[in-house]
Amino acid sequence: MTAGSPPPTTPANAQVKVPRGSSLKRRFTWNGAYEKCIRIVLLGCALVSVITTASIVFVLLYESVLWFPGHTPFFGKVSLVEFLTATQWTPQFDGNQHFGILPLICGTLLTTVTAGAIGLPMGLASAIYLSEYASPQARSILKPSLELLAGIPTVVYGYIGLFFLTPLLIKPVLTGVFGLSVDGFNALSGGIVVGLMIMPMVASLSEDVLRAVPSSLREAGYALGATKYDVSAKIIVPSALSGIIAAFLLALSRAIGETMAVAIACGNRPQLTLNPLRQIQTMTSFIVNMMKGDTPVGSIEYQSLYAVALVLFLITLTMNYVSQWILRRYREAYQ
Amino acid sequence: MTTLAVPMSSARPANPSHIGPPAPTLGAAANAAPDGKRKIKIQTTDMGFFYGTHQALQKITLDIPERSVTALIGPSGCGKSTYLRSLNRMNDIIEGTRVIGKVLLDGEDIYARDVDVVELRKRVGMVFQKSTPFPKSIFDNIAFGPRIAGVRSMATLAPLVEQCLKQAALWNEVKDRLKDSALALSGGQQQRLCIARALATNPDVLLMDEPASALDPGSTARIEDLIDDLRKNYTIVIVTHNMQQAARVSELTAFFCMGRLVEVGRTKQLFTNPKEKETEDYITGRFG
């Protein structure tokens, strides 16, 4: 750089001047046009998300509830009452089609509850460890490995559930020791892997809210003779409770929406059961299965997919909204 | 407390006849005792403090008599807060800190290996510059210390909470809303709540780190009145930037500068007739 190119020399007394226009009036410049272009491009990118969401919602509504000339939606063929109360889901059985979403909701509930029972406490415990107990060295190892866990493709989790968890852990323990019958595909294995999957999310979101608790509260606790556990469990966690609940709800809505892992590990037989050792089908795995088959577009089973997707969308939307509402309240409380 | 005689005499052989006067430091050998009969509650001898490799305090030798108010004054960054926080080992929370020398509470070395920090902090309470009410009810705030110490029955807790709130001169203002959130109290009330909460663990010593610096003059006056009441039963060490406050509330004043204890003496004497030039410059506002 420096070789051969001496810095431009200016006379010692010369003043450097930035060029400026001769009038204050607005007129066309290439610079101004460039600014406008930038603005339009940025706005366009931001609008993509709005347009996508709006069109997805429209498609869901079009196939399930919107009447048009020559188009009958799903709920024009199947009554809402049957959809919400019937106990069988057999869209692919010709002549004996039943569209009761309860077995699918039940399957989703089973995997989500199992996942929550595993992922939420473990995630919160890791968050407490990371924010209150861990030394910087321990943090520097744990934090990246949690992030790594979050980065594993969900399909891998599905196969871990199907080929390792069920035959190597669930069956030997529950069948071998307790004599329970366990299906090769079962809700438990799917629930456990989804639990492991949401754990890093719970941990990372909760850790953020735990660390946001002012350290003066920690000091005040220690000054009263509190142990680390007292401070964590009785001061920090209650102070961050609304943030933690919001993190839980976000993680649960992720568990509800989880598709690949449960489609692989839990199987594809919609059954109205609360036994986690049975093969089940969740809302998401029904959708992914329908796409694999050659369902004719416009048929009732094709449309049922959109009806299920609409229910799923409404559930996760509600949960995300509630968790954001809680988070907002939490922020207000701390200012 | 009979153990006191041993460290006392070994630490300061020059003055074996009675227990009580603050340690003469840096040549201030003739410091008069505030009260010859008072015993020493906290004794620091050649104490030094390190943040990593940075030495924040050096060779601090200071005796704090019981049931009295000792003020620590000095310019920002002089180490007075660090010293205060080392008296209940709050600095342990900060990674990489180290203490050398001796800090004795009732003759016991609080930095000895077998000391339970939790027990120590119950005995040496602390109030911070920023009031730190927990996001709980007023009652639960005061009951926090006793509860973690194992007191569960309401029959014990209720009178205890009342007594502590009365001691902190807050009872009349909050007696009808003990179940309300402590965060709804005003700044001055929150600070008195924190004092009441510190009293609830039944400490002997109360450390105060600029307890009134964020309060308006009215609330400050109430805190100072409170300190005046508490001195009858507690040993109070207060860090303050406000020299008028030090003069008003304390019996002994210690002047810190650049990590050293420059001078310690009876408050009146130190403010009217300081022995050291540095002290005089600071209290007359020529520096700091």
Describe, in plain words, how this protein is organized in 3D.
The complex is a heterodimer of chains A (335) and B (288). Chain A has 335 residues and is mainly α. Chain A has a domain at 102-299: MetI-like fold, CATH 1.10.3720. Chain A is built from 13 helices and no strands. The longest helix of chain A is centred in the N-terminal third of the chain and has 35 residues, at 30-64. With 288 residues, chain B is an alpha/beta fold. Chain B has a single domain, classed as 3-Layer(aba) Sandwich (Rossmann fold), CATH 3.40.50.300. Chain B is 34% helix and 23% strand. Chain B contains eleven helices and ten strands. A six-stranded mixed sheet of chain B has the order 6-7-8-3-9-10, sandwiched between helices. In chain B, a hairpin with a 2-residue loop joins strand 4 and strand 5. In chain B, helix 4 crosses helix 5 and helix 7 (187-199) packs parallel to helix 8. The model of chain B is unreliable at 1-34 (pLDDT under 50). The chains are: A mainly alpha (335), B alpha/beta (288). Chains A and B meet through helix 8 and helix 9 of A and helix 3, helix 4 and helix 7 of B.
